[in-house]
GFA family protein (Noviherbaspirillum galbum), 142 residues
Amino acid sequence: MSERNGRCLCGAVHYRISADPVAVRLCWCRDCQRLAANGTVNALVPTAALDISGTVADFTSTADSGNQITRRFCPSCGSHLFANSSARPQLTVVRVGTLDDPSSVKPAVNMWAASAPAWACLDTSLEQVERQPVAPPAKPAG
């Protein structure tokens, strides 16, 4: 296990992750495209392993998957940092671009590939899933 740290653009919100990601994915759903004007790289980490300092604002909406997604961001600079799905409250999505070392993780799958724009550069070495992939298995405690 390695510790990872990150922050928002203005530095008002910092975070520490004390567990390795359960999965790292490149998402091409329309919501992620609207957030980033592109696909987003997301690390799924155990919610209990995420320590946040600073105040975050949130916005909840229904995703294409049908799940309620609460996205959390810095209210000062607007950096999108985290998301939680009603389907998997034990996991938190961390936007990899906000990590101090985004190269410390690598995506394994292009998800919602069916929604990617025609110009998208999908890494052909990654698994490609047309829509929502199967949830990662829960890691045993201890």
